[in-house]
UniProtKB/TrEMBL annotation:
The lineage of its organism: Eukaryota, Fungi, Dikarya, Basidiomycota, Ustilaginomycotina. Pfam families: 4HBT. Belongs to the thioesterase PaaI family. It comes from Malassezia nana. This is Thioesterase domain-containing protein. The keyword Hydrolase applies.
Amino acid sequence: MGIQGHDAHNTKRLEVKAARPGFVDTRFHIAAENLNRAQTLHGGMVSTLIDSVGSLAVASKGWFNTGISTDLHATFVKPAGKEGDTIRVTGEVIGMGKTLAYTRVELRHSTTNQLLGTCTPLTAAYGSHTKYIRMGRDSPHNREFNEDGEHVQ
């Protein structure tokens, strides 16, 4: 039996292109099921990407259990894409303490590299994601990586 649930269904077209501790670079291929009535990427899907890619950024630091969302914020400024488009979604851990991790996620059009995800006139959406991580801190499945993310310490 494969992985099931929200992420498995909604992020099946999400590809991780690169990662290092605290940062992930992904691509999301927009399909018809991801669209709103205006035929552009649905805001709920943008929120899902902020959640999932923010969690992947935490996981890239070696965390097996990436915690529980306590706050997720998305700002929508312009359409992020339509069916058939690919968007670049990057996630970065901007702070991590004993109980909370803070991430920032940006969305860009992957062909033009037009920024879709920070507060500029070209913005489509950007977000932040806070996670309660205490229960995962001592997991035996956690790993530590060197800065390039290639070697386990």
